[in-house]
């Protein structure tokens, strides 16, 4: 047996080791990059955050969420039958069987290095997102005729493009009307949770003959249909031209492959012209009539009003969050949790699980403000993220804070749906709903006209940010057109901006390591700063989820 | 009388002993399960199982699944009649 090296033992600072064990290592000494198994993104062991936070993570996040996944499956799925449908769906659809089982690693990646109230509030956002996903997954499988779903449920269900706002189903919810955005779960969320599967769908559509240069998001969305991986869970479909003309191309392929009654609901690009608002409102009314014809449901104004008012409450709380984020150092939600939660609930629409999360987060946020807790104490720069983010690396915000102290305060997608919809009269309500539709993701600022994409400057000021993370979606023809204009403005306004190239869901075009390298280069050479955690500068996670 | 009492007391003591053993075993099992789960959590064993075993298995299953040939889908759409009303 080898004798212990007494010299080495003498060098160990036991007092410090004990302190690190109890409270966790301070930021700067953590060396989080050493925890990874090369290429895989798996951990040799999960991070030790001190006794309190590690046990919180273990009990209240890891164990709790695994348990709540089972709970949600049983509740949303309607008992054991729902669980059987879930198993059948897991076996039938790649986007489920290969993707969502890895959900807790998504939590891990996005919550790395977080402590205390920040850890709690951010994790609650992911709990909300996970619950919303399960609500939709069980919604798909319980109705899916491919796996023996219930035709009666399917008969009251409308499939949509994911950019058709979920509020379109509000007037019918009391009669069992159900809305299924056909791309949100099979495509959009998969990229964040496990980006392996989306590549199959991109390759499928290109193998079918589509060129490789359109938006990879639209390619993937079409690829799901080419691969016959969309459940037969809805009776008819409502599509829209949002966010761009590439999305229209997707709808053409979808329409062809599914062969179901389809209503195309166009929304205008240049939404500032009020004369077009009435036209959009008419399109929405036509979509409602189409849905009624297909499902036999009736339009209930009071039901619509009820859900809109609840949604307005969510929006009002969002503004409270922004106020705290903009004016204090006590905002307890990290960049990725803020971004994904906001875009998910404002696009999917009002449902009970969001209110539960908001109630809990409000409590945490109030505690942070009342006790003046500095939630991101190592912040060196307050960052605003602008344009459309890389879906396969939404956790870059967490990495950037841990490695460089870049704290992402707010992002463009969070700011898009800032509208309280009026419910005083049907006419006012309809006009506001039309406006809400026009402000869809990637639409209001990204392709809604130069003055809107340049809303960056006022939001930078409003949120007290000193740096811009400028997303550069290489296959978005709309955003590629304004690169030069932004560069001129950054120079003229003397703003530090880092261009982050990416291809939305496709990590093969710009790998995550390259994104990190670009940020590292800027921070070393332009800012002249040193990393807080050098172990995170360069690591290989090419095959990770 | 005394013998009967002591027999009762013996039975009671036996029951108490059994109950204690049951509680001890239950608590022990729960503690062991909790510790085991903590090991799974801390050493990322759930991630490793999913990454090295479950995902490759599922991937293989989906790669070999028989799928509809998209070229066989007819181009005429059933909604064309409906849309022509607008």
Compact summary:
Chain A has 545 residues and is of the alpha/beta class. Chain A has helices at residues 6-11, 14-23, 51-77, 80-92, 94-99, 103-111, 116-143, 151-154, 184-193, 198-207, 216-226, 245-258, 275-295, 301-327, 335-348, 352-370, 396-404, 412-415, 426-438, 450-453, 456-462, 477-480, 483-493, 512-526, and strands at residues 157-160, 178-181, 236-239, 262-264, 381-386, 406-411, 467-473, 496-502.
Written account of the structure:
The complex is a heterodimer of chains A (545) and B (86). Chain A contains 24 helices and eight strands. Chain A has 545 residues and is α/β, with parallel strands linked by helices. In chain A, the strands form two sheets. In chain A, strands 2-1-3-4 form a four-stranded parallel β-sheet, sandwiched between helices. Chain A has a four-stranded parallel β-sheet with strand order 6-5-7-8. With 86 residues, chain B is mostly helical. Chain B has one domain. In chain B, 74% of the residues lie in helices and 0% in strands.
């Amino acid at each position: 047996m080898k004798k212990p090296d007494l010299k080495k033992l003498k060098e160990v600072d036991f007092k410090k080791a004990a302190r690190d064990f109890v409270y966790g290592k301070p930021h700067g000494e953590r060396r989080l990059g050493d925890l990874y198994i090369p290429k895989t993104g798996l951990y040799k062991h999960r991070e030790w955050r001190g006794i309190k936070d590690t046990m919180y993570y273990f009990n209240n996040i890891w164990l709790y969420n695994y348990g709540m996944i089972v709970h949600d499956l049983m509740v949303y799925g309607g008992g054991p039958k729902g669980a059987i449908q879930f198993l059948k769906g897991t076996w039938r659809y790649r986007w489920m069987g290969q993707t969502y089982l890895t959900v807790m690693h998504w939590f891990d990646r996005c919550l790395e290095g977080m402590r205390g109230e920040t850890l709690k509030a951010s994790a609650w956002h992911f709990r909300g997102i996970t619950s919303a996903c399960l609500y939709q997954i069980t919604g798909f499988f319980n109705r899916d005729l491919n796996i023996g779903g219930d035709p009666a449920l399917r008969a009251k269900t409308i499939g949509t493009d994911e950019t058709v706002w979920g509020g379109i189903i509000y007037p019918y919810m009391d009669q069992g009307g159900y809305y299924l955005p056909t791309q949100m779960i099979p495509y959009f969320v998969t990229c964040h949770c496990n980006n392996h599967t989306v590549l199959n769908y991109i390759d499928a559509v290109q193998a079918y003959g589509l060129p490789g240069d359109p938006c990879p998001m639209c390619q993937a969305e079409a690829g799901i249909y080419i691969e016959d991986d969309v459940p037969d869970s809805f009776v008819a479909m409502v599509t829209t031209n949002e966010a761009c003309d590439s999305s229209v191309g997707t709808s053409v392929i979808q329409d062809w492959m599914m062969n179901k009654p389809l209503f195309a609901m166009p929304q205008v690009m240049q939404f500032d012209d009020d004369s077009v608002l009435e036209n959009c409102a008419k399109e929405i009314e036509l979509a409602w009539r189409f849905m009624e014809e297909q499902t036999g449901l009736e339009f209930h104004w009071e039901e619509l009003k009820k859900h809109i008012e609840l949604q307005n409450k969510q929006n009002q709380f969002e503004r409270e969050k922004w106020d705290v984020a903009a004016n204090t150092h006590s905002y307890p939600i990290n960049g990725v949790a803020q971004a994904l939660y906001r875009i998910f609930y404002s696009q999917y629409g009002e449902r009970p699980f969001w209110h539960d999360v908001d109630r809990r987060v409000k409590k945490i946020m109030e505690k942070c403000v009342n006790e003046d807790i500095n939630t991101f104490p190592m912040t060196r720069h307050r960052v605003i993220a602008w344009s459309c983010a890389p879906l396969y690396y939404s956790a870059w915000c967490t990495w950037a804070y841990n490695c460089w102290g870049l704290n992402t305060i707010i992002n463009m997608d969070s700011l898009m749906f800032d509208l309280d919809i009026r419910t005083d009269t049907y006419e006012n309500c309809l006009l506001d709903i039309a406006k809400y539709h026009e402000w869809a993701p990637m639409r209001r600022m990204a392709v809604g006209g130069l003055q809107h994409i340049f809303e960056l400057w006022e939001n930078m000021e409003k949120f007290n940010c000193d740096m811009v993370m400028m997303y550069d979606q290489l296959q978005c023809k709309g955003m590629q057109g304004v690169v030069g204009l932004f560069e001129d403005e950054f120079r003229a306004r003397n703003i530090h901006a880092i261009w982050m190239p990416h291809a939305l869901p496709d990590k093969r075009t710009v790998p995550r390591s390259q994104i990190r390298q670009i940020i590292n280069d800027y921070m070393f050479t332009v800012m002249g700063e040193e990393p807080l955690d050098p172990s995170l500068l360069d690591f290989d996670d090419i095959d990770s989820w | 009388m005394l013998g009967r009492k002591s027999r009762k007391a013996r039975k009671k003591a036996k029951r108490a002993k059994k109950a204690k053993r049951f509680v001890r075993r239950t608590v022990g099992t729960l503690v062991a399960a909790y510790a085991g789960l903590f090991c799974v959590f801390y050493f990322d064993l759930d991630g490793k199982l999913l990454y090295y075993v479950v995902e490759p298995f599922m991937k293989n299953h989906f790669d070999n699944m028989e799928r509809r040939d998209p070229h066989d889908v007819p181009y005429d759409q059933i909604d064309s009649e409906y849309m022509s009303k607008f």
